[in-house]
Amino acid sequence: MRGLRRPLGIAATAAFVMLVAASCAGSTPGGAPDSPSLGSVTPVPPEGEVAATGTVLDAAGETQLCLGAVAESYPPQCSGIPLEGWTWDGVDGAESSGDVTWGAYAVRGIYDGDTFTSTQPPIMLALYDPIRPEDPTGGEPGAGDDATLASIQEDLPELLGDPYLGSSPQNGWLWVDVVWDDGSWQEAADAEYGEKTIVIRSALTETGG
Question: Is 0.85 topped by the overall pTM?
Answer without folding.
Answer: no
